[in-house]
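Anyone up for a design puzzle?
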């Protein structure tokens, strides 16, 4: 304890900060989802309380709720409430910079705005205002920060006399009265978190705790007045940091040269007058303080644990769950897109889209990875094959271990690989062969084949987008039909040796907004189906993979040499086609017309209405031998064996019997759609050659 009979310079114990891990998680979310590159100051709220233990000081703490809520959090993110005895709210400002260099270059001179007397008397917590500067490295999950607790400097400094425990300063009668009054003040919800107050002692030793605005009334009543505050410090010889600005305000407001202050501290939730301090402060330059032209110096930058005045850095990567880290890292690139390049990017649409991948080979592996890179989290892979030794080099989800012991099913191995790459993916596997036209079904196998048809129907119905990535042409027929019937987004990717085709199928021929009734307003399939009809917007429906064919799909695998049975293609082709297929899906999901969007070209007259992601073509065909790429459009054919209204209507009418007949009878689809008659007509068509002038050597002729 200081020498009670000697006057000495009043020294204050610095404020200390504590930041909850949740604050940094909230700041990261706020930065990515709302602030972007905005460096505007952010209002925050810290909390503190009186010292509660004779060995430990209290800190000013930042919690997750210290930051303002995002718009999506309004309903469930609690704000710091008033009336909590252990959470006295303190206003603050956060400056979060975009770069580490910007953080280091910030002016470190804290600015304590001039507090109007009425403002302090209305809300005394403004005397505790603080400042935080920070830089959030969201790639490494490290946060650089520095607290400032701005305090106005008294020059010359204040001196203190008779600093002693409150229990020794008050009379015996006053001690019990002070203890009771303080406990009553702290137990009332309206005053428990008011950090500055008056201790008014009447001539008969009755003590009351009053607001700062009552100071003149206390003087008129002839009461002895002490200026009290919630002291976070536990030291026996020093008052806490809040007293600095409090003294400055008292002198400027009431021109007092002698100030009795009361450092209120607690033990187990009750006033502890042995731990609390009372002292007499002397200020010698009161008149200069009242001169509003004189702006005092400001101090208050926090020192680190080693006593140095420098910033701090915390790294949360080691303490975070690896899955949570993976999710944050995966979303980082997508959220950064929205800062400048693509503000309209809808991550919710992408993360909620359910994608069905038919084929888990070279294309399927690449498409699955590209979908995850775009933020798609729900992926189902369908394949009946097993991983062979030739697969891992070309099919990026498999390793040599998947080939051993006869090979694991591709669909299952792919799902395991996706989970290893990104633990948060919701991937499912389905081991199933797709029934195909031209591959007749023996009677004993009809039941299992029809069950496969039902399963495929259910899978397509339960997903929002379907990728056709199988090896053979005929294996794409049934999915194309089912997608046209259900009006699902359908993307086809096909490979040649050095060429590829990627295309989106048009809407189904019988699609109707009345047919899609979704209970969930956020259901993606419902949103696609509720768009206007093709007839209403009067544009031609885009074709599917089979619309340009004049023959029905047949068996393309029998009587083939090894190089014809395998997908022999240049290794660089699959990643290109897969990436374009996924980009097509993202374009459809962000297009206002969705599945009904017409084919767009970069040179079209509608280029002025180009979407943020660019044009949305119908077909993309490329050649590696020429290093060329072109966009084409093909309209739906009325004779298409997969998506024409004739075929879809027949499927709706006959169901699985229709599919079984199409599988077992190769010419059935051609007869049904009129392709048989069309080919007969083409065969009987004769050309008349009309030569003008009778010159036999003439090079140009008209047909």
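Challenge accepted. My sequence:
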């Amino acid at each position: 304890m200081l020498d009670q009979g000697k006057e000495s310079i009043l020294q204050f114990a610095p404020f200390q900060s504590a930041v909850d891990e949740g604050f940094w998680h909230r700041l990261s979310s706020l930065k990515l989802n709302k602030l972007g590159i905005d460096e505007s100051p952010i209002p925050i709220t810290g909390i503190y309380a009186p010292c509660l233990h004779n060995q430990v000081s209290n800190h000013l703490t930042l919690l997750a709720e210290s930051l303002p809520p995002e718009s999506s959090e309004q309903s469930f993110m609690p704000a710091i409430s008033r009336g909590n005895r252990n959470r006295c709210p303190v206003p603050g400002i956060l400056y979060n910079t975009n770069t580490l260099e910007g953080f280091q270059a910030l002016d470190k001179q804290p600015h304590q705005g001039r507090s109007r007397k009425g403002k302090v008397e209305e809300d005394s917590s403004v005397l505790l205002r603080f400042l935080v500067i920070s830089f959030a490295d969201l790639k490494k999950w490290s946060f650089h920060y520095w607290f400032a607790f701005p305090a106005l400097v008294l020059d010359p400094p204040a001196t203190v006399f008779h600093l002693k425990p409150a229990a020794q300063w008050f009379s015996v009668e006053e001690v019990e009265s002070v203890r009771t009054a303080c406990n009553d003040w702290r137990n009332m919800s309206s005053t428990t978190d008011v950090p500055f107050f008056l201790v008014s002692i009447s001539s008969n030793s009755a003590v009351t705790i009053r607001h700062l605005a009552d100071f003149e009334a206390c003087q008129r009543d002839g009461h002895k007045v002490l200026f009290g505050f919630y002291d976070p410090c536990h030291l026996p010889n020093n008052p806490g940091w809040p007293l600095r600005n409090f003294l400055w305000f008292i002198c400027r407001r009431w021109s007092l040269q002698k100030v009795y202050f009361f450092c209120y501290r607690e033990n187990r939730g009750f006033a502890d007058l042995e731990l609390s301090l009372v002292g007499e402060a002397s200020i010698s330059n009161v008149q200069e303080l009242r001169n509003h032209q004189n702006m005092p110096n400001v101090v208050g930058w926090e020192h680190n644990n080693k006593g140095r005045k420098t910033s701090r850095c915390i790294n949360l990567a080691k303490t975070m769950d690896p899955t949570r880290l993976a999710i944050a890292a995966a979303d980082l690139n997508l959220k950064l897109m929205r800062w400048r390049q693509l503000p309209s990017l809808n991550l919710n649409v992408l993360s909620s889209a359910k994608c069905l991948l038919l084929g888990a080979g070279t294309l399927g592996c690449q498409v699955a990875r590209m979908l995850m890179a775009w933020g798609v989290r729900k992926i189902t892979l369908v394949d009946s094959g097993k991983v062979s030794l030739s697969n891992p080099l070309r099919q990026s989800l498999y390793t040599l271990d998947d080939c051993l012991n006869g090979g694991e099913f591709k669909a299952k191995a792919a799902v395991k690989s996706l989970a290893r790459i990104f633990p948060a993916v919701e991937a499912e596997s389905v081991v199933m062969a797709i029934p195909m036209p031209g591959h007749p079904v023996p009677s004993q196998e009809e039941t299992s084949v029809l069950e496969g048809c039902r399963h495929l129907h259910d899978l397509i119905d339960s997903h929002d987008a379907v990728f056709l990535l199988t090896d053979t042409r005929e294996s794409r027929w049934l999915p194309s039909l089912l997608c046209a019937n259900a009006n699902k987004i359908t993307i086809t990717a096909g490979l040649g040796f050095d060429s590829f085709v990627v295309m989106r199928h048009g809407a189904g021929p019988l699609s109707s907004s009345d047919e899609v009734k979704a209970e969930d307003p956020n259901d993606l399939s419902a949103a696609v189906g509720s768009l206007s009809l093709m007839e209403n917007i009067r544009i031609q429906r885009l074709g599917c993979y089979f619309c340009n064919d004049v023959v029905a799909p047949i068996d393309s695998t029998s009587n083939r040499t090894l190089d014809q049975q395998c997908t022999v293609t240049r290794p660089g082709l699959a990643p290109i086609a897969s990436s374009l297929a996924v980009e097509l899906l993202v374009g459809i999901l962000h297009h206002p017309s969705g599945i009904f969007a017409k084919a767009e070209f970069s040179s079209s007259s509608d280029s002025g209405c180009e979407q943020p992601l660019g044009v949305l073509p119908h077909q993309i065909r490329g050649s590696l031998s020429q290093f060329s790429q072109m966009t084409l459009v093909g309209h739906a054919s009325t004779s298409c064996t997969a998506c024409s209204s004739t075929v879809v209507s027949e499927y709706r009418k006959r169901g699985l019997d229709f599919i079984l007949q199409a599988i077992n009878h190769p010419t059935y689809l051609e007869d049904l759609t009129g392709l048989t008659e069309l080919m007969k007509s083409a065969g009987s068509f004769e050309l008349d050659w009309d030569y003008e002038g009778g010159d036999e050597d003439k090079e140009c002729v008209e047909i």
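A detail worth pointing out: The first helix runs from residue 21 to 35.
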